[in-house]
Design a protein that fits this description.
- The complex is a heterodimer of chains A (423) and B (251).
- In chain A, a hairpin with a 2-residue loop joins strand 1 and strand 2.
- Chain A folds into two domains: 299 residues, no CATH class; 54 residues, no CATH class.
- Helix content of chain A is 19%, strand content 39%.
- Chain A has 423 residues and is an alpha/beta fold.
- In chain B, strand 4 and strand 5 form a beta hairpin.
- Chain B has a six-stranded mixed sheet, sandwiched between helices. Chain B has a four-stranded antiparallel sheet with strand order 2-1-4-5.
- Chain B is built from eight helices and ten strands.
- Classes of the chains: A alpha/beta (423), B alpha/beta (251).
- Chains A and B meet through helix 6 and helix 7 of A and helix 2 and helix 3 of B.
């Protein structure tokens, strides 16, 4: 529905900054632009956006941009925590493919390209009829296309690195496609890093899993402290497939991450989990929509959220079980630890069930550290600060158990511990 | 070692007075048993000595090794050698038992100005103590107390005590929930730690534990005061006659 409202500075900058370009993405950009021109930025009167009013939050103009990095990109690249575990890297700096910082895997079963270097059109779809997707398609400059051939394994992890730095008041837009054909498997990391300037990062990932395919995806959101991170994940899952998805969110001033998971084939498992480590006035609104369209699938969501200072965490999780989707097993939980009286957590779990033979549940808890646990540790001689760190670390680490790769789990623990040590 | 004088304590939440003038002197090498009916203030006394929040000392003093114990934070008390074996040991999901023991021991050592114990030395220490207490490796690999049976939790408490080697051990109802075999194992572990420079305060409702951990002194706590003190025979007397004779004395 188009409501005639005055355009904000940010919206005007987007609308005026549009250029479909002359490459194979031009038609997609036009579609995205047409969609965004109707919706504009989302605002609080939209139920799904009531906690994250982008019209207000993105107060200034952040014109779409590409490249132009002048800062210390090397320092940010060196800080990517998963770089030593990954066996291939695609690096995008300010939304532009950086061949010098990329090493593509050599295997012929694995097709990896940057969108900007593709010789012909690649299949790009819509992730959701929503403003993040519209904005993304309208202004996409680059991204990774990964296709694993049927029956092939790309289990040596491939890392997509997005570094946004030193170009203030710009929007950087990337779009990735991960396509696993039948029986293929892959591990993909997404690392989002950024400098201290204010910018908008819009990054969308489309995942398509064929029958019997398996994807392990780990995303680290460590964008710059003044930035906005907008992101959609869309995963379409075939039969007997497996998706293990994990996101650690530590960066950005404002984050809106959405996941749209759709079960299209039976006997498929999807685990979508994550952790938030937020302080100062950080704001992270994570929204998931898990759609069971077919019977006999299992979905698990577990989010462990730690908020300090005046940080605010939001988890909106919806599980839809269609009438045909009998024997669905869906569980969703979000648990928050509030480390300061001014921190806040909001949870909105929703179950929409049309089938009658399903096991579905959700749980949401929110609270501060358990005084009895703290006393027990202190009574054994552990100083208060250390005791608190141990308990917070243990709280967050429960979500890391959903990551199969032990080396990645160790990195996640180290990241959590260094966040705690800096408190 | 420990001198409690005229200790008055109330619960902060509702201002209810629990301890109404406790006097107790414990010297190095001694084992004192504190017995009393439910609600007499036994657990409160143990928590106040260990430094739990939520209790207000309204009068009196507690001196430990010449220092004002009540002025110290719980972790400082532990580093000074005070150890409370909890009546209900707490489960800590996500914190591995070995990591917990190592951080606890090394925190105490650092606070005392001793160096940290190396990992191999630490492993050797825990392994030898664990064998004595029949704590198996599997328990050590699990998160602290998670999934432990009642008896395993109590053995784990005594294992912590054996590793941390405190000077003052306070055992709060260590016998509750234990069958006779587990009780024997726990008591042997405790007895192995008896030494001329270590004192113990054993809090219990029943005399049973005192058959295995034989005390030098027995005190009866009733309505927040020690109403009678004697030798080990006092415990047997209580077992025979119950607490009925004491319930009104402090009224």
């Amino acid at each position: 529905m188009a409501i005639a409202t005055q355009k904000t500075a940010a919206e005007t900058a987007y609308l005026e900054g549009f250029d479909a370009g002359g490459d194979w993405l031009a038609a997609e950009r036009q579609k995205g632009f047409d969609a965004f021109a109707v919706t504009g930025l989302p605002h609080r009167r939209m139920e799904d956006w009531k906690w994250t009013d982008l019209r207000q939050l993105i107060g200034k103009a952040y014109p779409p941009a590409k490249g132009g990095a002048v800062g210390d990109i090397d320092a940010l690249a060196a800080k990517c925590p998963l770089k030593d575990i990954a066996r291939g890297h695609l690096t995008f700096v300010n939304g532009e493919y950086d061949a010098g910082r990329s090493q593509l895997p050599a295997s012929g079963d694995v097709e990896v390209t940057a969108l900007s270097t593709a010789s012909s059109a690649l299949p790009i779809g819509e992730t959701a009829a929503d403003p993040i997707d519209g904005l993304n398609r309208a202004y996409v400059t680059d991204g990774a296309f990964i296709r694993i051939k049927a029956g092939s394994n790309a289990d040596a992890p491939l890392e997509l690195v997005f570094i946004n730095s030193s170009r203030a008041e710009a929007t950087f837009t990337t779009r990735n496609v991960i396509e696993l054909e039948d029986g293929a498997s892959a591990t993909v990391f997404e690392t989002h890093m950024g400098g201290h300037d204010a910018y908008v990062s819009n990054s969308v990932t489309e995942v398509r899993l064929g029958n019997g395919a398996r994807l392990d995806r780990v995303k680290l959101q460590m964008e710059g402290a003044a930035s906005y991170h907008l992101s959609n994940l869309k995963a379409d899952l075939g039969a007997e497939a497996k998706l293990q998805d994990f996101t650690l969110t530590m960066g950005s001033a404002t984050t809106r991450q959405q996941g749209f998971i759709t079960f299209n084939g039976e006997h498929t498992d999807a685990t979508v989990s994550g952790a938030f480590l937020l302080n100062r006035k950080q704001h992270n609104d994570t929204r998931l929509v898990v759609d069971h369209k077919v019977p006999n699938c299992v979905s698990r969501e577990l989010f462990k959220c730690v908020m300090d200072d005046e940080a605010r965490g939001i988890f909106q999780g919806k599980v839809i079980v269609r009438q045909d989707a009998q024997k669905t097993d869906g569980k969703q939980s979000s648990h928050a630890l509030l480390l300061s009286p001014t921190a806040e957590f909001d949870a909105k779990p929703e179950l929409e069930i049309y089938a009658d033979d399903v096991v579905c549940g959700h749980g949401a808890t929110s609270g501060d550290l358990d005084e009895n646990l703290l006393f027990y540790l202190r009574a054994r001689g552990i100083p208060e600060k250390k005791a608190k760190s141990m308990l917070i670390s243990a709280f967050v680490a429960e979500s890391f158990d959903d990551v199969d790769n032990e080396a990645v789990r160790d990195v996640l623990k180290d990241l959590a511990d260094s966040w705690l040590a800096a408190r | 070692m420990l001198e409690i004088k005229n200790l008055h304590v109330s619960v902060e939440e509702d201002n209810k007075a629990i301890l109404n003038g406790v006097d107790l002197t414990v010297n190095a090498g001694e084992v004192h048993a504190i017995m009393g009916p439910n609600g007499s203030g036994k657990s409160t006394l143990s928590y106040v000595l260990a430094g739990k929040d939520g209790y207000e000392v309204t009068d009196g003093s507690v001196t430990y090794m010449g220092k004002d114990l009540l002025e110290m934070a719980p972790d400082e008390r532990a580093a000074e050698g005070v150890f409370l074996a909890f009546q209900y040991p707490i489960e800590i999901p996500g914190v591995a038992t070995m990591q917990f023991l190592k951080v606890a021991l090394n925190s105490q050592r650092l606070a005392r100005g001793e160096g940290e114990l190396s990992t191999p030395d630490f492993m050797r220490l825990v392994k030898s103590r664990a064998e004595t207490l029949k704590v198996n490796q599997d328990m050590l690999k699990r998160p602290v107390n998670v999934g432990f049976s009642g008896g395993e939790k109590k053995r784990a408490e005594i294992l912590q005590m054996a590793v941390l080697e405190p000077s003052l051990c306070i055992l709060d109802e260590t016998d509750s929930g234990l069958d006779i075999d587990a009780l024997r194992v726990v008591a042997e572990g405790v007895n192995a730690l008896r030494s001329p420079d270590r004192a113990m305060v054993v809090i219990t409702h029943y005399q049973r534990l005192l058959d295995y951990i034989v005390p030098d002194h027995v005190h009866v706590l009733s309505k927040g005061r020690i109403v009678k003190s004697g030798g080990k025979e006092l415990a047997q007397e209580l077992e025979k006659d119950g607490y009925a004779n004491y319930s009104d004395e402090a009224a």
